[in-house]
Structure formats: C-alpha cells, structure tokens
Amino acid sequence: MIEGMHQIGEVAEAVGLSLRTIRHYEEVDLVPPSGRSAGGFRLYTDGDVDRLRLVKHMKPLDFTLEELRELLELRDRLAGGAGDREQAGLAERLELFAAAAERRCVTLRDQLGAAEAMARTLRREARQHRPAARSEARRHRPAVRR
Asked: pLDDT digit string (tens) for 87-128?
C-alpha cells in the first residue's frame, strides 16, 4: 500500500458510508479516488476522505450532486490560493452555500420537531390503551381454581 493512501473499505468505515455510495460518488465524478494500487484497488488520500465526509454531512441538507460538486470545486479553488479579487468572489459564493445550509437546517429542525411531536402523541395513545387492553383481557380470561 502507498503511504498516506487508504483503500475503499478503510475509507468507508472511517467515514460511515457504504462501498456502494463511495463508488457512486466516483461514478458521478464527485469524489474520485486519487489513485489505484498495483492490483487496481481504489486509493484515497486524507483529503479525499475529508471530501467524502463533507458530502456525507451535506447530503441530508438536500443539496444536489451538482451543488455538492460546485461546493467542492469552490473550496478547492479557495484552498488553492486564488488572487484577492477572485478570492472575494469565491468567499461570497461560499457564504451563499452557508446561508442555504443554515436555511435547510431550520427546515430539518422543524421536521424533527413535528416528528418528535408525533412520536409523543403515539406514545401517549399507546399508554392510554394499554391499561384498557389489560383489564379487557382479564375480564375474558377464565378464572383459575386452585
């Protein structure tokens, strides 16, 4: 194995993604591996692993693959040392992504609140019916004589 490179199974375990998902991200050219072993196995750098983590964390926010690709490219260009003028434009675009992510987090919190309220309602209903079900069963159970 090449120093600093990780095979797909190791990456999948580290990031918490399936092999299939990581291969899909390669197929759609979102996070291709940085290399291949002599045996043809995919090899990923620490930077690739970080990109996969970012994609994993952004996916629940409903960003499209194209938006994710744009975000990754934007971050790469910022890290690559763009000139001041370009850097300002890139930073502004990154701010738009940040604002979109924040809005989507609010939506997810609202959805989670509604789901939690439904779970509480169902739990309350289950508790209300449990004693009735027990007493109903007792009434229909034949008495055991000793």
From this structure: 888 999 999 999 999 999 999 999 999 999 999 999 999 998
To the nearest 10°, report the CA torsion of 55, 59, 65, 68.
Answer: -50
> How far apart, in Å, are the Cα atoms of 6 and each of 35, 45, 93?
10, 6, 32
Average pLDDT, the chain: 88
CATH of the domain at 38: 1.10.1660.10
| Complete DSSP assignment for 76-123 | HHHHTT--HHHHHHHHHHHHHHHHHHHHHHHHHHHHHHHHHHHHHHHH
Q: In whole angstroms, what is the distance from residue 101 CA to residue 94 CA?
A: 10
What is the extent of the structural domain holding 29? 6-140
